[in-house]
Amino acid sequence: MNRSRWFALPGVVFAALTACTVFRPAGAPVERLRITGLREPVEILRDRWGVPHIYAQTTDDLFFAQGYIAARDRLFQIDLWRRIGTGELAEVLGSEAVSRDRLARAVRFRGDWAAEWESYAPDAKQIATAFANGINAYIRGLDGKRPLEFRLAGYDPGLWEAEDCTARVAGLLMVRNLPREVQRSRDAAEFGLPALTRYLAPDPPVSLRVPAGLNLGGITPDILEVYRDVLGPVRFRSEEGSNNWAVDGTLTKTGRPLMASDPHRPLQIPSLRKTVHLVGPGWNAIGAGEPALPGIALGHNEHIAWGFTIAGIDQADLYAEELNPANNGEYRYRGAWRKFDLEGAKIVVKGQASPQVVELKYSIHGPVIHEDRARNRAYALKWVGAEPGTAGYLASLSMARARNWTEFLESAARFKVPSQNMVYADKDGNIGWQVVGLTPVRKGWHGLFPVPGASGAYEWSGFLSPSELPRLFNPPNHFVATANHNMLPSGYRHSIGYEFAAPFRHQRVVEMLESGGKFDVADFERMQQDVVSIPARRFQGVLKKWQPDAGSRAARIREMLLSWNTSLDAESKEAMIYEAWIARLPEAVFGPRLGARVDLVTLLAELEKEPRHAALERALKEALARLEKDFGADMDQWTWGSAHTLRFQHALREERFSRGPIPRPGDGNTVNAASGPGFRQANGASYRHIADLSDWDRSVMTNTPGESGDPESPHYADLLEDWSKGKYHPMPFSRTAVEGATTERILLEPAK
Asked: Number of folded domains in the chain?
């Protein structure tokens, strides 16, 4: 069915069970399940917020149980993720998904599997195998009975292998510079390098040079057509990102560190994060991760807490290979024609009697993702995902067991994709920040444009060592904070990337951290919910230099915005006017073509340098006309939340499974980030946590809309109302606290 084409991302597995439900005379109900594949009994305590706390006696059983509960809570979601990651989506969606499957097959890992598994953790393969077996146990226990979503979609869940956890597609989609290489080439062809340098400059600034031999006119949007297909309906935008920060005891009321983290992702139902507490040999960690992967990606254990934001390292390049006009199976490299490596892949396609065979083509640089036969060019993707250990987030299996800064750095060295700013705090009172990610070395070139592959002049010269990436430990200002901004220290000698977010969220976080006083968990909650706009504050400075006609409507609007506190509250009419106005200013200032490309940083800098009174007047007039059309003439009805809304849309497009719309504060440049196309929120912090290192049980979190993906579960959307109001819930960690919050007990026992 067509509506199924909107599914997204990777992971899943099998086994057999029998079940009966009994109830204790007092306390939470107990569900006993006998399962083939377990060695010892496992206890799962689900708290009132839907979070499973898993207690196991062996490592295999711990991750078997995590896989089992992931399938029980999120089977439809993780089955789709696995299919996208392994290139098996066409089996359930039909021929429209073949191109997506082809790319997934093309970017799969093709190297040394021993090195691959060892890169994540010494026991990574063991853990992934157990996780897969647990998923499969749940699927087998269904005994052929399709869960509701599968009945509607018309197919059965597939079985898992450990290698499914190493799919590369999700990591590739977090490498954001590929579309920008193509767009920058098109901008250079249209506007010229001087205009790019002035209005579309990289960050940090660098002299833009078109690589010798690159034909800018040949760089067309269809080069990344397959990449965009895989990306799906949600596009990763520059304002997407995350926040994290940590303070040491000098700045807290308890005298111990606090750490906050809120990764921003597309907001979907079910959530892209799943919370779990894992307790077993060598494990006692709680936090959130990808539901289709074992372990947790961010959270805390008994000793340390950590969180992340995307760091913006340039981890990919697009190579324009010169095809042999007489034989398109060959390409030129360093003066000679070389044959492409060819592989055939069989893709099962729904509705077709036999598998479709597709050709996977590889140059020395990587898989070919587009061919332009008219220009004798093929475009190959070189990215770090070809290296061992580059499946997204799987290296967290090591990080979750670190006990101190030294062990944290050792585990951080294993974390290669996506690139991250890791913020750290520990029970000994230390805080730190470490950039992680496999970082190519480009000698004499910057990676901002596609590069010709024929000359061999644009090759990577290895990778930076983890110790060469930026880090801080116990800084003198007593805090660390990142928000996808340009975090490179002054004088940093390595070039690692130019695709950073605007600095506004980071500036606001630092402003709050430097406000004086000492912090507690409630203060950090307010910080994560903050919607004060630094750009709006700067826009007020622009308005102070503008004097519209006295008594005019423009003059009244100006005075209204100058007296505004620049908080983008959902109830604020000033926020609505500001957003409508600022959205129309790029075209008014730069014209339609260049205006469609400049960002808010450039716009504000231009307005601060030269007020552009006519442009301000024109953009305001257009904004007010649109607001009157959409909301009527009564300005009191022009609230930001009436236009800025969020809807959680289920993959099946079933209205009964979706939630919203709900009014939302903030925008893509506030700490409480709420970005998306137009005035619709599509991205933000579905998961937040605040770790209190004075007492883990005082830590708090929020996930939305719920921990379960089962529309019939009470935990499907039970957290949405609190999340929308900025409320948090406890994150019980000690056995006593977990017992006190338990509403459901699941006892998994080995089948005899």
From this structure: 3
